[in-house]
Specification:
The complex is a heterodimer of chains A (about 210) and B (about 200). By secondary structure, chain A is of the alpha+beta class. Chain A is built from seven helices and seven strands, in the order E-E-E-E-H-E-E-H-H-H-H-E-H-H. Classes of the chains: A alpha+beta (about 210), B mainly alpha (about 200).
Chain lengths: ~210, ~200
């Protein structure tokens, strides 16, 4: 039995013949219906282009004011960072840390790692850290929660609308664009292809 | 479907990180040749880890709902809110859709996650004969919805930073925020450490 011709379903461990679905086709596990593979057109090129776009959006999304309020003549602007800073100053350091990680550090790391990995694959540059980067990326992906944060902004604004005057800043535009880039990255990412290419590249290097 | 169709029954294991198959009884150390991570046929100590994280989650769910999650001060008059109190306040100010959203994200989802993971653990421990496909789907839903409970935490972080106008109006996060954030993080880790292949392993057919 040739081991490379087989794959196992990660959720029910069924041993399956390896198939290569065409682009826009999906391969599901016949037993538990897990989505095994969904190839994407030009996954590496698109990941490279999208993560480069994301890199330029990181600074404005993090530093420009997202929402500002005005109550009885007092106005105050909020950025992505100011939430965790204020929580930290109120000695809620655990919550501040979770918010900082989920809304700033992990989305940022996710884009930087995507750029590093897809860049190396795009230019056929072997690197012994490639698999460590991809493993890290797979782990932090779940903890980058920009879309949940956007919902948080919406709920907070609805709550504030009754008592204060709101104005939306340029940072919100950058934030929404960054969220769009993150979602596009997730949908264009072909994990099976990335692992295969990393293996080929590193095997080529060793020869 | 016969049981010897699984990779484990054929003496193979799948790398958790990159999906590459390897022989269980290979002479080499059990490190994936493709990505260098440690190989296991099943997630190590999946049951015990999930149970420990789940019990901590249950314990913290109580203070998360009993203590105030934030205090809103307007012109010097402070008013502490619990999670439920915040939802009631939203209903009173005629914002029913948002109230429903917060109710689902911060009360129902964490509770259903805790109960759902408990069911999965009971199923594995007592070798319940179930429709494994359906129960795997339950696991998938639990793993997917977990992140949305962070909604309340993000909303508080935004309110705290925006409504920071000294005596005029101020929002201060309460102790329940830490407990609630811990519940969300712990249940996310619990879902991550649960290995759905265990459900299939205990089925007899």
């Amino acid at each position: 039995m040739k081991i490379l011709n087989y794959l196992a379903c990660p959720e029910c461990d069924l041993l399956l013949q390896r198939v290569l679905p065409a682009v826009n086709e999906k391969a599901h596990c016949p037993r538990c219906h897990y989505l095994l593979h969904r190839p994407r057109i030009q996954s590496i090129t698109r990941t490279f282009a999208l993560s480069l776009t994301g890199l330029f959006l990181l600074l404005p999304a993090n530093l420009l004011p997202i929402v500002g309020i005005k109550i009885l003549g007092n106005s105050h602007d909020g950025t992505l960072l100011s939430g965790s800073v204020t929580l930290f100053n109120e000695e809620m350091w655990a919550v501040a840390m979770v918010v900082f990680l989920a809304s700033i550090l992990f989305p940022m790391l996710s884009i930087i790692l995507s750029l590093l990995i897809s860049g190396h694959l795009y230019f056929h540059r072997p690197n012994r850290y490639l698999s460590a980067w991809l493993r890290t990326l797979q782990h932090i992906d779940e903890w980058a929660m920009l879309e949940v944060y956007l919902l948080g902004i919406i709920v907070a604004c609805v709550k504030l609308a009754a008592m204060a005057e709101l104005k939306f800043g340029l940072g919100l535009t950058a934030f929404v664009l960054l969220l769009w880039v993150a979602l596009m990255l997730a949908s264009n990412f072909d994990r099976v292809l990335f692992w295969q290419r990393i293996e080929q590249l590193n095997a080529h290097e060793e020869k | 479907m016969k049981k010897n169709n699984t990779a484990l029954a054929q003496g193979l294991m799948r790398c958790h990180e990159c999906g590459k198959l390897a022989q269980i009884h290979s002479p080499a150390p059990l490190i994936c040749t493709r990505c260098g991570s440690h190989l296991h046929a099943r997630l190590p100590h999946s049951f015990q880890r999930t149970l420990a994280l789940l019990l901590s989650g249950f314990a913290l769910y109580i203070p998360a709902n009993l203590f105030p999650i934030m205090t809103v001060t307007k012109l010097g008059v402070g008013e502490p809110h619990t999670i439920l109190g915040g939802i009631v306040a939203l209903i009173h100010s005629d914002m029913l859709p948002i109230a429903m959203l917060v109710l689902v994200a911060s009360i129902l989802v964490p509770l259903l996650k805790l109960l759902g993971l408990s069911l999965l653990l009971l199923c594995v421990h007592f070798r319940w004969q179930v429709n494994a496909k359906l129960w795997t789907r339950l696991y998938r839903i639990i793993a997917f919805v977990g992140r949305w409970s962070m909604l309340d935490i993000f909303m508080i972080s935004i309110l705290v930073s925006l409504v920071n106008l000294g005596g005029v109006a101020q929002v201060i996060a309460g102790s329940a925020a830490t407990a609630f954030a811990a519940v969300v993080v712990l249940t996310m880790f619990a879902a991550k450490s649960f290995d759905p292949r265990l459900i299939w392993d205990v089925q007899n057919d």
